[in-house]
Design goal:
By secondary structure, this protein is mostly helical. Helices cover 40% and strands 5% of the residues. The N terminus and C terminus are likely disordered.
Length: 468
């Protein structure tokens, strides 16, 4: 029987078949026999040991003494528990601890060790939907890859490992478990053996990463081992498998040398691969197959991380990006979204016959640039597409037959006067002749005394912006 990892001070009696310790051992042995992943068994062993320790502190040593109320108290214990650094357990960690208990007690009830399952109604905490906090840009990835000293065996190995991580998006344990025979250079793929969930899969690998692997095999690996029977691809200086934590510390060191302060190490390459491929146009299904995700919903988190296209659409369509605007005290905001025309401080109302009598803005020149670039000769200033040649007659007939609407926006007159229009909230306002998109509210800050215009709580001191 395998050893059970509990505190030596915790009383345990393996000779009692109904004790928590004995039943936990039987459950873990059953998991191993039924081919559960070794990492899963090790994690559940640690989780169950924690719970048994907690029960023994309360003089509970047998499984039949555990009640639903006790499990709820244990759940509260996990919630209020604080680690050595004073931080609470993450919600995901609490769920993992409780999931191990639910699986264990379900197994006990199914195999008739218990008359009923005390964890049947145990509700897990609602997990937070978090996004990957960081991903590296192309420039940052190249900066990290350039850090290892490739003149040394360890440096060349590190470069080959990171190139493989970046090219394939593998987890660190998957990379460290690669065999020499898992590389198919002719097809340009790697065989990932017993990945997460004990599942094998093929993943593509780029020619650049293969080149660094070949260089590592030719120059560095012979210095790490002289055993021709060693199947592992990446080895330590003693010819053994690289520990995952050792690899993470090495990658973190290279990131610090490159001046990258983003948190993480090996897994950052995985996030970066998915994010950059999505930005390059790869479909979610292909990224799901590459990363080995069982559910597409797991892959979809990268659609929330990769948003350059959303940013571009926002820049081209949001009215705050398309037009200038004035705030409620009459001062144009600083930055690229500021109004192109002169501010109210620069031109007094009514100072120019060709400008706006309320705000003093001057009408744009004929060759003025549009917010997103120079005006096209065939494009009207309002941003609407020019009608096709064949549509001119039909448009004229439609205009002749359609009655003008008092609520529809109209073009500002050439004489500099304002046109009465309906504001978005139903109030009446006047369209600025200098800027066909701007509408002044009655009592607008531009036409009121300075002491009145500075009132931040005055709802009438609004400057509406609409697009026609």
């Amino acid at each position: 029987m395998s050893h059970f990892l509990i505190c030596p001070c915790v009383p345990s009696d393996l000779s009692d078949p109904e004790s928590l310790t004995a039943l936990a051992e039987r459950y873990l042995s059953w998991s191993e026999v039924h081919n559960f992943a070794a990492n899963t068994v090790a994690i559940r062993r640690r989780h169950l040991a924690r719970f048994i320790d907690w029960c023994h502190e309360r003089s509970v040593t047998r499984a039949r003494e555990v009640t639903p109320a006790m499990l709820e108290r244990y759940q509260r214990h996990l919630f209020y528990y604080r680690k050595e650094d004073g931080q609470p357990l993450r919600i995901s960690s609490q769920s993992h601890w409780l999931t191990a208990l639910r699986s264990w007690f379900r197994w006990l009830a199914r195999h008739r060790f218990l008359a009923h399952n005390p964890a049947a109604d145990l509700e897990l905490p609602r997990e937070e939907k978090r996004l990957p906090r960081h991903a590296l840009s192309r420039t940052e990835v190249e900066a990290v890859l350039a850090q290892p000293d490739i003149d040394t065996p360890v440096g060349l190995r590190s470069r080959a490992v990171m190139e493989t991580l970046y090219s394939t998006g593998l987890r660190r344990i998957e990379v460290l478990q690669l065999y020499l025979s898992d590389i198919d250079r002719q097809r340009g793929v790697l065989l990932v053996r017993q990945g997460k969930g004990n599942k094998d899969r093929f993943v593509p690998i780029g020619a650049r990463a293969l080149g660094w692997i070949d260089l590592y095999l030719a120059k560095a690996r012979p210095q790490l081992t002289d055993d021709p029977r060693e199947p592992l691809l990446f080895l330590t200086t003693k010819g053994r498998q690289v520990h995952p934590n050792e690899l993470s510390a090495k990658v973190r060191q290279y990131m610090d040398q490159a001046g990258i302060t983003k948190k993480g190490s090996c897994h950052l390459f995985r996030h970066s691969t998915a994010t950059l491929m999505l930005e390059g146009g790869a479909g979610l299904r292909y990224i799901q197959a590459l990363l080995g995700h069982v559910s597409l919903s797991t892959t979809q988190i990268y659609t929330h991380v990769s948003i350059p296209k959303l940013c571009e659409v926002h820049r081209r369509t949001h009215p705050a990006q398309l037009t200038g605007y004035l705030n409620d005290v009459g001062t144009p905001p600083a930055g690229p979204d500021a109004a192109d025309g002169p501010s109210r401080d620069d031109a007094a109302p009514g100072s120019s016959a060709s400008g706006c009598p309320l705000c003093g803005s001057s009408p744009p020149s004929a060759d003025a640039a549009a917010p997103d670039g120079p005006l096209d000769p065939g494009r009207p200033a309002d941003g609407l597409a020019s009608p096709a040649p064949g549509d001119a007659d039909r448009a004229a007939q439609d205009d002749a037959s359609a009655a003008p609407s008092s609520s529809s926006p109209s073009r500002p007159p050439s004489d500099g006067s304002h046109v009465s229009v309906d504001a978005p909230d139903g109030r009446q306002g006047q369209r600025c002749p200098a800027d066909g998109r701007a509408v002044h509210a009655p009592g607008d800050a531009a036409s009121r005394p300075d002491n009145e215009a500075s009132r931040d709580d005055d709802d009438d001191a609004l400057f509406w912006t609409i697009t026609v």
